[in-house]
Structures are given as structure tokens and as C-alpha cells.
Amino acid sequence: MITPSTAGLPPRRFEHTWSGPAGQWAYDRWGTGGRPIVLLHGPMFDRTMWWPVAAELADHCTVYAVDLPGHGASPPRRQYRPDVMVDELAYLLFEIGCRRAPVIVGHSTSGLLATRFGTRYPVHAIVTVGQSLDVRPMIGNVVGLPHRANVRRFLGGLGLAEVPPLYQSLAEPRHDHSLLAGYLDWLAGPPDDVQWEVDAILRRVQAAHFSIFGQLPWSGYPEWLRELIPTSSCVVYNRPGAFPHLAELPRFTADLRALL
């Protein structure tokens, strides 16, 4: 289906669905040329959170904003195993004719998904947005809590109130307790053990890796990450909350264009 952005003008956003081995994916395509950028929303949100970013980038590249399984127009599943989703995403990109190594961008814990994708498939660059790759504090604060407390704590840590009013309707979270539990299940366990598994993934990253934050997770974080990913860089916008791509839209899109 084609959705015109303004009556009487050519469409900029094209809505699509794709049937993968484990289920259907919904996604938007913006733009028609240049290196692809793939945008992954965080759990409890959907692809609409990327619309302002995609609209700014559409004249410079092809943008794909997907609904992860169980979110938006992508149906739920019994399981949300990261490796299965990463492999299906690669299959989706191949099936729709994406032949250039993409810039893959993940918000919140989907930054971990984007990073994992970049260790299994060729990418031009990996970008994580608002997500520390030191997951130990998150495990202690969110993972393993009762479902309702789990969702409340997860969303409370994102700083939703800091999203500019213009974009708040695009960052309306769901409160699906079982869905969040399914997405965080692979992070369940003793924090140091889980971090050891995450570190093993990070050490396999060879592409350029950028972490974009409103504020650094902790002092010394860039040095810690560089020990694991020598190609890593941290960019800090000095804004509260985990939505720097909406709080500083012109700067964020300029940073992505610089990676093309």
C-alpha cells in the first residue's frame, strides 16, 4: 500500500509486508537510492518512532523501518529468539533486493539486536541509540522482575517525558507484559554471566560501531567499550532520556548521513 505524506504530492513512504520462515514482518521503505539504512525500534514501540528520521533521510538513501515481531503490524510469536530474528531480517533484506551492506540502527535493547546482526552479516556500520552495552545494571533493575513491575521499570528508565511534544504520539509504548518478557528472556540470568555472553558478541564486531546517547551510562564507558570493540565511538548529545534521535533530530540525521 502507498501512503502519500501530503495530498497531491508523490508518496515518500511505502508500506510493505513480507512473510518469513517464522512469521510475517511489516516495514516501511523511504527513498529509492543510495546505501540502505535499516532502523529497528526498541521493545514496546513500533516503526512509527522512526518516521521523522526516515523523512529527513529519504533524499539521501533508502531507509527501511521494520516492525519487529509482535509489534505494530508484525504478528506476535511464541518465541523471540534474537538469532532467529537476525537471520530473518537478513533474509528480508535479501528478498527485497538490498545488495549493499547497510547501516543498521537499533534503539534501546534492539541496539543489541543490531550489534548481533553486524557480527553475522556484512554491514557498513552499526549504530546503537540510547542503549548501554553494559547490560548488568538493566538486568538488576528490569529482567527477572514480576511482569507488571518489569514493564513499569523498563519504560520508566527510558525518559519518555523527554520526547519532544511534536513526536510523543510516535513514541507511545505498549504495556504488553508477556511481549517484553519474551524480548528480554535471553538476558535472564546472573548479570555477570549474561554480560560475559554479550561481551563475546561485542568482541566479534569488525564494522564501525557508534553508540549515540543523550547522556553517557557512566564515566569511562567509551574506554570500556573500546576494549571490547576497537572500532567503537560514543557520541553524547547532552540531553536526558533514551530518545536522542527525536530530541536532537537534525543532529541525529546528520550523524547518520555522515556514515553513508
Automatic annotation (TrEMBL):
Pfam families: Abhydrolase_6
Organism from which the protein derives: Phytohabitans aurantiacus
Transmembrane segments: none
Protein name as it appears in the record: AB hydrolase-1 domain-containing protein
Upper lineage: Bacteria, Bacillati, Actinomycetota, Actinomycetes, Micromonosporales
Listed InterPro entries: AB_hydrolase_1, AB_hydrolase_fold, Carboxylesterase_BioH
Top-level taxon in the UniProt lineage: Bacteria
PANTHER family: HYDROLASE ALPHA/BETA FOLD FAMILY (PTHR43194), PEROXISOMAL MEMBRANE PROTEIN LPX1 (PTHR43194:SF2)
Segments forming domain AB hydrolase-1: 37-225
